[in-house]
Amino acid sequence: MRAARKENSQGASKKSVYQEAMETFHRAAEVVGLHPRVRLELEEPDFEHIFYVTADIRDRLVPLEQEEEERFKDLPASSVKASEALEPLANGNFLLHRRALLQADITMREGVIRIPKRGLFRLERGGPRKFKAYRIQHNQVRGPYKGGIRYHRDVSLDLFKTLAAEMTWKTAIADIPFGGAKGGIRIDPFAYSREEIEHLTLRYVYKFKNFMGPYLDIPAPDVGTNGEIMAIMMRQYTDGEREKHSLKGVVTGKDVRIGGSEGRLRATGQGVVYSLEEWARERGAPLAGARVLLQGFGNVGSSAAEILAGLGAKIVAVNDVNGTIHNDSGIDVPKLIAYVHENRENLRRSVSGFPGAAAISKSDFWLLDADILIPAALGGEIDGNVAEVLKVKVVAEGANGPTTLDGDRILSARKIELIPDIICNAGGVTVSYYEWLQNQRVEHWSEGEVNSRLERAIKSNYAIIRDIAADRPQKTPIHDSRRFCVGRKLDMRTAAMVLALKRIEAHYLLEGFSQ
Ligand code: NAD
Q1: For ligand 1, what atom is nearest to the CA of residue 402?
Q2: pLDDT of res. 83
C-alpha cells in the first residue's frame, strides 16, 4: 500500500519528498515480492522524535539596511577593540562580546553604531531562543540505528524521514550491521557562533541521551556538522559515566586523535571514486583524463575532487551555494582546497571568487561538456529540466537524493548512466562502522588498512548491484550475486534497492517477529 498523496493548495496532487523517495522502495518491494509484513515494517520509521532545544544567544551587530544608512550618515564612529570584541559570523553579522564595552568609546543612536572600516550596524538583543530538533529512527533490524546529524535551515520531518530510510537501505547495501536514522536541528549554522552551536549541541544530547548509545543509535556528521560537533556530542554523552572510555562508539566521524578512524574524513569521497573506478573499468575507459563536473565542495565534494585529480581526472567546473567556477583545462584542486577550507577569510567556505577559474552561471554549469557529474550538495538538484540538458555520461550521486523522480526518468531515457546514492556515497558510513569496530576493540588501524577494506566493500557490493541490474547471477573471487538477481533486468536504482531489501528481509524471515 502506498502512502496517501497530499493535496497542495491548488488542489493538484503533489507528492511529499518522502513519498517520492519511497517510490523506489515500493517498486523494488514488488520486484522481490517482499513479505507484506516486512513491507509494513519498513514503510514508516520505527520512531519519529521531535523535540526542542534552547540556548542563550548573544547580542549581535547586524548590518544596517541600505535605505536606513542616510539617516545615520552623521553618526560618529565608535572605538571598539574589534579583534577581541567583535566575532565575525559567516552571514556577515558580528557577535558583540560584553568585554567590547571595556575601554570603548561608544556612540549609539536608536540602537545603531558605526564600526570603523566596517560600516553601520544595528544592535540586536540576544536572549534565550528555541530551536526545533529531530531524530528519526527508521529501522534497527540489522543493528543499532545509524545516521548523520544535519544542522540546516531547511530541514523538516519529511526530509529526515527520507534520509533516515536511506540510511537503512545504505547500511544494508554496504553490508554493515547497522540500521538507519537521521536527525539534526533546524538552524542556519552560518548565523551562529561556535560557542552557540556548542551549547545547542550539548542540549541536543542532554535531551536525547536515553535514546542513543553505541548499541542503540550512533550519530555521525552530515551537512552543517563535523568532527568537532561529534566530539562535543561524545563528551556530553559520556560525562559522568563510570566507564566512559567504553562508550566512544556512541558517535562516529570523530577526530582521529580522540578515537576517530584514519580515512574517515575522506571516506565518502573515496567511496564515490571507488564506485567510479568500477564504472570506468567496465567501460575500459580510464578515469585519467576524464572531465568532471562537481556540485558542492564540502566534505564529500572536496575529497572526491582531490582523489580524482590525483588519478589524473580534470575537474572542469564546481558549483556551490554561493557561485560557480569554470576552467576548461582543469581546476587546480589543491589550490581550491586551500582557498575554500584553509582560508580564515573565506567564512562561507565557498569556491566563489577563486582566482584560478572564471565565474559562470549555475544554468551554464549544467550545460558543460563532461564525462562525469558528481552532485555532492543537497537533495533534489537534478530535476527533469536539468536532466534534459546534461551532456555527461554518468551521474555519480555523492549527495543523498540529488535526483528527482522526473530527473531519473529523463536520465534513463537519455541513456545517461547513474550510480545511485545508496551505494555511491556509502563510503562514509562504511568507515564509520570501521571506526565503531576500532572503538569497541580498542584498536587503531592504518589508513591503508581502512582504504583496502573500503575498496573491497564498495567494489564487491557495486558488482552485486550491477549483476542484479543486468540479471547476471554469478560468483567471482570478490562477489556473489546469485542470491540477489531476480530473473529480469532492472535500472541501477531499483537494483540497489533490491539488494537492500533482500538483506533486510532475511532478518525478519529468519528471526521472525516478536508478537
Ligand atoms: P558540507 O556541508 O560539507 O558541504 C555541502 C556543500 O554543498 C557546500 O559546498 C555547499 O556550498 C554546497 N551547497 C549547499 N546548498 C547548495 C545549493 N543549493 N546549490 C549548490 N551547492 C550547494 O556537506 P557534505 O558532508 O559534503 O555533504 C554533502 C552531501 O553528501 C549531502 O547530501 C550529505 O547528506 C551527503 N553525504 C555526506 C556524507 C559525509 O560523510 N559527509 C556521507 C554520505 C552522504
Answers
A1: 32
A2: 62
| Rounded distance from Cα 443 to ligand 1 centre (Å) | 30
Interval between CA 305 and ligand 1 midpoint (Å): 13
The packing angle between helices 157-173 and 492-511, to 10°, is 80
Q: Per-residue pLDDT for 4 more than 80?
A: no
Distance 296 CA to ligand 1 centre (A): 6
User: Would you give the DSSP letter of residue 355?
Assistant: T
Tell me the pLDDT tens digit for each residue of 116-175: 888 999 999 999 999 999 999 999 999 999 999 999 999 999 999 999 999 999 999 999
The answer to whether residues 468 and 453 touch, using CB atoms and an 8 Å cutoff, is no
- The x, y and z cell numbers of residue 25, run together, are 522502495
Ligand 1 proximal residues by C-beta, below 6 Å: 221-224, 268, 295-301, 319-321, 376-378, 398-400, 425, 428
Give the per-residue SS3 of 133-149.
EEEEEEECCCCCEEEEE
Phi, psi angle pair for 347, to nearest 5°: -65, -30
Q: Is 14 a catalytic residue?
A: no
What is the spatial distance between Cα 277 and Cα 239, in angstroms, rounded to a whole number?
43
Average pLDDT (281-290) is: 93
Over residues 470-482, the pLDDT tens digits come to: 999 999 999 999 9
* pLDDT computed for residue 14 by the predictor: 75
Contact residues for 51 (Cβ-Cβ < 8 A; gap 6+)? 133, 134, 207, 208
In terms of pLDDT, which residue wins out, 313 or 108? 313
Report the sign of the C-alpha dihedral through residues 347, 350, 356, 359, in that order.
Answer: negative
